[in-house]
Design brief:
Elements lengths: L11 H4 L8 E9 L2 E6 L2 E7 L1 H6 L12 E6 L5 E7 L5 E5 L7 E6 L3 E7 L6 H14 L2 E7 L7 H11 L4 E4 L8 H4 L7 E7 L5 H9 L24 E6 L2 E5 L15 H4 L1 H7 L16 H7 L5 H23 L1 H14 L1
Parallel strand pairs: 3-5, 8-9, 8-11, 9-10, 11-13
Antiparallel strand pairs: 1-2, 1-4, 2-3, 4-5, 6-7, 12-13
Cofactor: Zn(2+)
GO molecular function, one term: GTPase activity
Subunit structure: Monomer. Associates with 30S ribosomal subunit, binds 16S rRNA.
Length: 345
């Protein structure tokens, strides 16, 4: 299938980067073990990377990922190609790899909006949503909460309000993928030339959303476990889909755990309410623990701030500090520094 560059979300941001190049332009749709599928106006190609890219790569950010715009050379046979260059990205979704390894895992690039998909069942978890929200702000994309399985929830409006309380100014939409109820609010968010990525835990309904939006079975669906409402992995790899009219969706596998990767620079975006209260603390370096005239603790006493939210804020802050220390000093010293911090509290 052939796509125009506009169908794939090409914009002036990338056009400025290809001036004078004789290579062809395409977008990475899948990426597995340095084997890539590229969508382009000339067709769909199976590509590998130039040896120079691999040789100079210092980390995963230097290799192509789903969503990347690349310059490639079509080889003289069939549908094979070789990638010569990755164009500069305008956003990048990443997390720390699961487990103890100190490595970054890239999820998608050049995403404009991220649908943070959460189910309105017993797996509904505000603290997890805060983590997803931080990840999106760190990427440079715009977050939107999509609450699925609306038909299984009796207090939808209360759940929407609770999400709005942790994400001021962020759009929150509740949908039912079986009947299509609520999708009239999603379709306007899929605008021409924009790329949307779906993120969420296993079994929250991302694949059902894809199928509803395409009006056919694009992604395979599995049932959740009835005993605990936990989902099973359906999507096994990241993939870019073209919905038509220049609307692009990147689906990602469900995540059992979400370990953060980044800095504390975007904590304000994810916890605006706490940061705003903190501006009124007596001390500029207030830790909101035992300090006098702490505006954050006062907000909790006055019922203006949930204490669980402050605990979540502290937990994320500690994670990011530890991540930074492990990068700088290694795991052993980072653990010792964290232990010293705990003794001070």
């Amino acid at each position: 299938m052939n796509y125009t560059l506009q169908d794939l979300g090409f914009s002036p941001y990338f056009e400025d980067q290809i001036k004078g190049s004789l290579l062809k332009v395409g977008r990475v749709a899948t990426a597995t073990n340095e084997q890539y599928k590229i969508f382009s106006p000339d067709g769909v190609f199976h590509a590998t990377i130039l040896g120079k890219i691999r040789y100079l790569a210092e980390g995963v950010r230097d290799l192509p990922c789903v969503g990347d715009w690349v310059l490639y050379e079509q080889l003289g046979y069939d549908d094979h190609a070789i990638i010569h260059q990755i164009l500069e990205r305008k956003s990048l979704l990443s997390r720390k790899v699961p487990g103890n390894e100190q490595k970054e895992q890239i999820m998608a690039s050049n995403v404009d909006t991220v649908f943070l998909v959460n189910a309105l069942n017993s797996d509904f978890n505000l603290r997890r949503m805060e983590r997803y929200l931080f990840l999106v702000y760190e990427s440079g994309a715009t977050p939107v909460f999509v609450l699925t399985k609306k038909d299984l929830c009796e207090n939808v409006n209360d759940k929407i309000s609770s999400v709005q309380s942790i994400a001021p100014g962020v759009a929150v939409v509740a949908v039912d993928s079986i009947t299509g109820n609520g999708y009239e609010q999603i379709l306007p968010l899929l605008s021409t030339g924009k790329t949307v990525s779906l993120l969420g835990s296993s079994g929250v309904g991302k694949s059902s959303m894809i199928n509803r939006l395409f009006e056919r079975d694009i992604q395979r669906i599995k049932e959740v476990r009835h005993q605990d409402d936990k989902g099973k992995h359906t999507t096994t790899h990241r993939e870019l889909f073209v919905l038509g009219e220049g609307r692009i969706i990147i689906d990602t596998p469900g995540m059992r755990e979400l370990q953060l990767w980044g800095t504390g620079d975007t904590m304000f975006d994810a916890f605006q309410d706490i940061e705003e209260f903190a501006n009124h603390c007596q001390f500029t370096d207030c830790k909101h623990q035992t300090e006098p005239k702490c505006a954050v603790k006062q907000a909790i006493e006055d019922g203006k701030l949930d204490e669980d939210r402050l605990n979540s804020y502290r937990k994320l802050e500690r994670e990011l500090i530890r991540l930074e220390r492990k990068e700088k000093f290694g795991t052993h010293r980072a653990n010792k520094l964290q232990y010293k911090d705990m003794k001070k509290r």
